[in-house]
Amino acid sequence: MPSRYVEISVKGVAAEDGAPAPDRIISGDPKFRTWNVDEQPNGLYSGIWESTPGKWRIFYDEWEFCHILSGVSVITEDGGAKRTVSAGDSFVLQPGFSGTWEVVETTRKAYVIRV
């Protein structure tokens, strides 16, 4: 029987490179690296994500738990407050969230997404 314990780590996991869609970029030239560590058939994903500095529009259809491992970002909800997040901060972005994500210092987070 395979282990039911999954370590959330970049060790031995190939990174996927990416970036925001060009029409969503507000400033900078942000580049993403994502290590999808665990994917379940019921639409549950977990892993590590990292972005270089820049600012872009975000729209969430999914539910996402985030835990910031390093760096500094500013998340601003449309019509709401700016929230600065850094190492040790945890939060959930719920379906319907829209606003901007600005990476001030290269940011790395652990995530769990439920589609």
Chain-wise SSE layout:
Layout: E1 16-18, E2 25-28, E3 32-40, E4 44-51, E5 54-59, E6 63-77, E7 82-86, E8 90-93, E9 98-114
Pfam family, one: Cupin_3
Protein name: Cupin
Domain (S)-ureidoglycine aminohydrolase cupin: 45-111
pLDDT < 50 runs, ≥5 residues: none
CATH top level is Mainly Beta
Structural class: mainly beta
Count of domain modules: 1
Q: Would you tell me the overall average pLDDT?
A: 97
- The ordered string of helix (H) and strand (E) elements is EEEEEEEEE
**How far is it from the N-terminal to the C-terminal residue, by CA?**
27 Å
DSSP strand content: over 45%
Morphology call = globular
Major β-sheet annotation:
9 strands, antiparallel
Going by CATH, the homologous superfamily would be Jelly Rolls
Number of helices: 0
Rg over alpha carbons: 14 Å
Q: Tally of extended strands?
A: 9
CATH architecture: Sandwich
InterPro entries: RmlC-like_jellyroll, RmlC_Cupin_sf, UGlyAH_Cupin_dom
Protein name: Cupin
Organism: Kumtagia ephedrae
Domain (S)-ureidoglycine aminohydrolase cupin: 45-111
Written description of the protein model:
The chain has 115 residues and is mostly beta strands. It contains no helices and nine strands. It has strands at 16-18, 25-28, 32-40, 44-51, 54-59, 63-77, 82-86, 90-93, 98-114. This is Cupin.
